[in-house]
């Protein structure tokens, strides 16, 4: 009997980049690897969407539409190029109006997309209806999604095989047009047995003629076992990535699954030697990028606090930048209660961020003292219906702190009533800024707001995280001594009963007496915020750029300028 051909989607250039590098990888650096992937025989790529839209404008000063066009030109017309859309959020973190949702599908079709994978983090089918119709109307293939995760131990009420079957039946009852179905586990926490049962149920409902996929991550260490379970259950496609952006917070490696399926009745349609050559090229392309240590790790704690790869590394990098990474274990521990009381929305963007923000607040400000806006609006119903009703006490606190009442209005109806989410509003802003109100520019302005406008005006900034952009210790360089002390964690400390100079501000020029100065250096020059403290108490904060002090402010709200 012939082996079953399994379709492999290479997620390297979207989820791989997002899970490992926070989506901050420049076109010029990775496009040679796209050519190598094509030469290796890969014909199905995830090449955009998710955070790989906003991040290009926010951090790379690049145009996502231009990137998509160049990608298509390299792989040719036959390749299946897929993007990720967050239902009514499309490629943003907020609900879009119907105009935005339709424009998203239209423009992605125009710029080389073949398939859009479309999910709702709450598994609220109402949020998939209009977005799915738009995708279909503009001639794209619609891959509708049921989002998955495992609940923290001791929690129940959703996220079992019966729950996923119910969501799938709701999709069918709603008559949403689709071409394939994906079960997407962004946190990689689902158990192999649950995956098996879910796929078996889906195959029974959908029959043999519907393409079914599984998407998961290696974050919790069970992704290969889950893919094996899905293959046995009858899945048609799986998502894999290429080294060095495979494993850890990303998808398992293509070579790993080629090895794992040896001797089995499955054919992934790829040659290991050719993939090895592709990975060598990719490694060379990415050699200058800083690899966060947590991006390559498997964590046994993730099932207790489901956190997807892209969100995990983005948040740890934020905490690293702000020198509070030591709080990360406590935040992860606090997520269990946040998930349970939040109504069991799936931990995938944007809900994963809502969970993390609330857990962070609970650690930094005290349990439930400060409701994060996104989390609060979610439990109040502004993004759709959660799988189960959130905790009544949390609902009450959210309403009081945010000044909002619970709602059952459709999320898109709420967005349509917001003038700032209209095409007309974007056109007005663009004309005021002297920018052509093309459809692409309208979408960039609506999706990326001020940072999108800055890009269109030629004022965008590059904030990638290459090895040269981070602290010497973070780049795995040896500790060095300066006129003070480098602590091996990115902090430069000047203390004691002596004076050193601070302007121009290089690694050997500071002027402080009996104080401690902490911050980051870029190529030996102060860059970013530096906090000056006396006896452990912050005295002032300096904002530095290329070795020069641009702003000095007090720790509280009052500030003064210093040139």
Describe the protein's architecture and organization.
With 563 residues, the chain is of the alpha/beta class. Among the domains are: 302-414, Conserved carboxylase domain (Cyclin A, domain 1), CATH 1.10.472; 471-560, no CATH class. Helices cover 40% and strands 14% of the residues. An eight-stranded parallel β-sheet has the order 2-9-8-7-6-5-4-3. A five-stranded antiparallel β-sheet has the order 13-16-17-18-19, with no helix packed on it. A two-stranded parallel ribbon has the order 1-10. α15 (373-379) crosses α16 (392-402). It is globular. The N and C termini lie far apart (76 Å). Residues 472-511 and 557-563 have low confidence and may be disordered.
Summarize the structure.
The chain has helices at about 10-20, 25-40, 50-60, 65-75, 100-110, 125-135, 160-175, 190-205, 225-235, 255-260, 270-285, 310-320, 330-340, 350-365, 375-380, 390-400, 410-415, 425-430, 440-455; strands spanning about 5, 5-10, 45-50, 80-85, 115-120, 140-145, 180-185, 210-215, 235-240, 265, 485, 490-495, 515-520, 520, 525, 530-535, 535-545, 550-555, 560. It has 19 helices and 19 strands.
The CATH H-level superfamily of the domain at 302-414 is Conserved carboxylase domain
Neighbour order of strands in the largest sheet: 2-9-8-7-6-5-4-3
Structural class: alpha/beta
- The coarse silhouette is globular
Rg (CA only):
24 Å
CATH class of the domain at 302-414: Mainly Alpha
User: What characterizes the major β-sheet?
Assistant: 8 strands, parallel
Quick one: how many beta strands?
19
Low-confidence stretches: 472-511, 557-563
Number of helices: 19
Distance between the termini: 76 Å
């Amino acid at each position: 009997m012939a082996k079953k051909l399994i379709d492999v989607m290479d997620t390297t250039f979207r989820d791989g980049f997002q899970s490992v590098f926070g989506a901050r990888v420049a076109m010029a650096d990775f496009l040679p690897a796209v050519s190598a992937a094509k030469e290796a025989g890969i014909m199905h790529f995830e090449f955009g969407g998710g955070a790989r839209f906003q991040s290009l404008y926010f951090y790379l000063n690049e145009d996502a539409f231009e990137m998509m066009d160049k990608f298509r030109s390299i792989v040719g017309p036959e390749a299946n190029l897929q993007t990720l859309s967050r239902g009514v959020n499309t490629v943003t973190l907020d609900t879009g109006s119907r105009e935005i949702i339709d424009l998203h599908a239209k423009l992605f079709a125009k710029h080389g997309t073949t398939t859009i994978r479309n999910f709702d983090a709450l598994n609220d089918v109402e949020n998939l209806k209009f977005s799915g119709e738009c995708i279909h109307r503009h001639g794209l293939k619609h891959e509708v999604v049921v989002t998955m995760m495992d609940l923290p131990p001791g929690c129940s009420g959703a996220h079992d095989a019966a729950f996923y079957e119910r969501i799938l039946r709701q999709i069918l009852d709603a008559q949403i047009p689709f071409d394939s179905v994906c079960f997407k586990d962004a946190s990689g926490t689902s158990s192999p047995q649950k995956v098996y049962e879910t796929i078996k149920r889906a195959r029974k409902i959908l029959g043999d003629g519907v393409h079914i996929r599984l998407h998961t991550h290696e974050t919790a260490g069970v992704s290969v076992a889950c893919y094996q379970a899905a293959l046995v259950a009858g899945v048609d496609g799986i998502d894999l990535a290429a080294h060095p952006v495979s494993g850890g917070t990303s998808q398992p490696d293509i070579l790993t699954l080629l090895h794992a399926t040896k001797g089995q009745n499955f054919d992934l349609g790829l040659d290991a030697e050719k993939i090895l050559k592709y990975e060598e090229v990719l490694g060379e392309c990415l050699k200058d990028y800083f690899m966060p240590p947590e991006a390559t790790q498997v964590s046994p704690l993730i099932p207790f606090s489901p956190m997807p790869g892209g969100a995990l590394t983005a948040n740890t990098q934020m905490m690293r930048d702000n020198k509070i990474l030591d709080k990360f274990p406590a935040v992860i521990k606090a997520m269990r209660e946040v998930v349970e009381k939040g109504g069991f929305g799936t931990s995938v963007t944007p809900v994963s961020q809502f969970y993390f923000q609330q857990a962070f607040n609970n650690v930094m400000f005290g349990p439930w003292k400060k409701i994060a806006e996104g989390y609060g609006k979610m439990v109040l119903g502004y993004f759709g219906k959660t799988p189960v009703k959130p905790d009544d006490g949390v609902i009450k606190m959210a309403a009081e702190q945010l000044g909002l009442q619970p709602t059952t209005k459709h999320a898109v109806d709420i967005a349509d009533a917001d003038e700032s989410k209209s095409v007309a509003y974007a056109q007005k802003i663009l004309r005021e800024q002297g920018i052509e109100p093309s459809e692409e520019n309208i979408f960039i302005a609506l999706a990326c707001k001020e940072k999108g406008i800055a890009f269109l005006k030629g004022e965008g900034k590059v904030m990638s995280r290459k090895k040269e952009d981070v602290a010497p210790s973070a780049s795995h360089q040896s500790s060095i001594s300066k006129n003070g002390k480098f602590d091996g964690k990115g902090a430069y400390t000047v203390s004691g009963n002596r004076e050193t100079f601070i302007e121009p501000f290089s690694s050997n020029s500071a002027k402080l007496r009996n104080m401690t100065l902490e911050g980051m250096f870029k190529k030996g020059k102060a860059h970013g915020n530096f906090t000056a403290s006396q006896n452990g108490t912050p005295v002032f904060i300096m904002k530095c750029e290329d070795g020069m002090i641009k702003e000095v402010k007090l720790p509280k709200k009052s500030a003064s300028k210093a040139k």
